[in-house]
Protein: Polysulfide reductase
Organism: Pseudotabrizicola sediminis
Amino acid sequence: MAMMTDTAPTSGHDTQGRGSHFLLHLIVALVLLALGGGYALTEILEFGKVQFNTNNAGIHWGMAIVTYDYFLLTSTGLAMVASLWHVFGMAEFAPIARRALWLAMAGLVGGVAVLFLELGAPLTALWATPLNMQFASPLFWKVLLVGAYAISLAIVLFGMINKPDAGRNPLMILVGGLALAVTLVAGLVYGMMAMRPVWFGGEIPVVFLIESFVGALAFTMFFSHLKNGFNHSNMRPDTRALFEGTLARMFAIAIALHFILHAGRAITGLWSNAEGMQVWGYMTAQPLFHIALWGCVALPFVLMVLPGTRSNGMMQIVAAALVMIGLLISRYEFIIGGQMVPMFKGTWAPELLSYSPSTGEWALLVLAVGLANTVYAFGAWKLGAEDRA
């Protein structure tokens, strides 16, 4: 099978290589979608929301919400990365702008699909949420903004289908602005909850913004290498120059900011004696916390800050994959950890609540990965998602 490169096809053989590359990606994605979606749908249809390991004691948002927020924030970050070219005219980012936008749509579809399956009545939510006029709730605005973001992003991508020479799109000002707004309001959904001390704080929207951007850079880097058969030398010269220069340095800076915020919140939580903050002692004692902090944040930062590894394609792939995994762990710790302290205590309530995802909830994560990759692979195979913008 011929490996896909950043260069445009110049022969029938190259075109066949393009098709086989993305067709294989699509087949693998469809297998994941069938496995995860089939199991998750079977569980939901048979047991309903009982198959989720959430409870009425305080753990109301489980792995499905973790998955939804993870994919949504990745999507908005990717739209912001694409805006570096489309809105700000940074020509260096032109080779990856189209890829970032298609990945943004793929992530959005995967995340929203999981949210719909988590809701008890998803079709009712489509009209009831905007019509309930709960203007004081950040969730109300988040739903409206996500809807507007999805529509505007779809319009932009529709105009790019099989148009490899499509240039900067002025509508991206709206898409980029909505992506920024969705990210910040998603942070406010948690940051405004005074009854949840681990979540409450004005810095949460900033945390979400940085995590969104660093995740977008990781996905862009990983899927760009995937497109080139994980062979750094297959990249076009301008794309390789971006990856060895500006993008790698920007990735290192974003990882550093993520590390500072992640470690800073943990240190503050451990220092505080406020009611509800005791959960930080539990979370920081878990191996998962240190895997995320040191293995999936600190290590990728080292790889991206050292000149010898920063420009190495394989090290970029490793760093990107670790960051993608680390952000999922961080999102899990943030959402679940924030609910572990019971809000209403009595003789029945333990000091900390416990939660672990059910097999059905893990299946929803597989479904999201499969669906997102299906959307992206099909776009790359048939709709010109991988042609240079």
In short: The chain is about 70% helix and 0% strand. The domain at 53-346 is CATH 1.20.1630.10 (Formate dehydrogenase/DMSO reductase fold). The CA atoms of residues 19 and 126 lie 37 Å apart.
